[in-house]
Amino acid sequence: MKYLTVILVLASFIIVLLSSCKKDTALEPLVEELHRIPENDIDQEIDSLAFTNAEKALIMNGDSSDTMRVLTIYKISNGDTIRCVEDSLILRSQSIDVRPDSTDSILVRLIDRMYKSVIHPNHPGVGIAAPQVGINRNVIWVQRLDKLNDPFEVYLNPEIISYSSKEIIYNYDGCLSIPGLSGRTDRYSAVCVEYDKLDGSHHTEVVEGYGYTNFTSIIFQHEIDHLNGILFIDRLHDNTKLMSDKEFEEFCKILGEPVPEKR
Ligand code: ZN
């Protein structure tokens, strides 16, 4: 009996020893792997502005001439209004900056595809923000109605740093992400905007225009709102009601203006 106890104790000791050796062996490849990672890769791991794998997958699932799906807070199906909860969550989230870099193929692809999306004849707009295509990043396209030939221009990390003292009611706010509805919103006649361009240059610019033919200042306010999870329905003047497309057409007729494009 005594011998049996000694044998059992010895056997247990050997088993414990073997299993602990096994653990160390199992960890060896991982330790080797960590030693093999070059330092610049470790830097990338902690780069808070690097595109995530999910962002890369969405951006790179089409080429530069492909549009991206424009997110909407609801859709109409067989006459019913269906809330798009997942799209809304993205549209209501705060976006983060990008690192301006004209050699970044992911960023360039995102910019190209956003442009294709905003000029698409099915839903032409005068501006678009990255959250509208599912990417919570500070990137916007704005049609510069204040410049010759109304060119579209892209802005990275835009921010409104000051507002004009003149507050206005803008009659024609509408959004690609809120189909079929328009409204009158509280806005400013001009804003001072800071932004980066793709080449890394940093700019500060005062943008004006809140009239029918040139409302560039409104487009900047609308698109930069998107980056902060704000939609035009949050800025309705005195909570005036939203107008359906038909009501809006009537409203434009009363004002003697054609129906403007969405943004
Ligand atoms: Zn919008």
Task: From the structure above, extract its key features.
three-stranded antiparallel sheet, Peptide Deformylase, 10 strands, 263 residues, binds zinc ion, single chain, alpha+beta, 35% helix
Characterize the structure shown.
The protein is α+β, with helices and mostly antiparallel strands. It folds into two domains: 2-36; 51-255, Peptide deformylase (Peptide Deformylase), CATH 3.90.45.10. Helices cover 35% and strands 24% of the residues. The chain is built from seven helices and ten strands. The chain has helices at residues 2-36, 39-45, 53-59, 85-91, 105-118, 216-227, 245-255, and strands at 74-77, 80-83, 127-129, 139-143, 152-163, 167-175, 178-188, 190-196, 202-208, 243-244. The strands form three sheets. It has a five-stranded antiparallel β-sheet with strand order 3-4-5-8-9, sandwiched between helices. A three-stranded antiparallel β-sheet has the order 6-7-10. Strands 1-2 form a two-stranded antiparallel ribbon. A hairpin with a 2-residue loop joins strand 1 (74-77) and strand 2 (80-83). The radius of gyration is 27 Å and the shape is globular. The termini are far apart. Residues 13-24 have low confidence and may be disordered. Bound molecules: zinc ion (ZN). The site of zinc ion (ZN) has 6 residues, from helix 6.
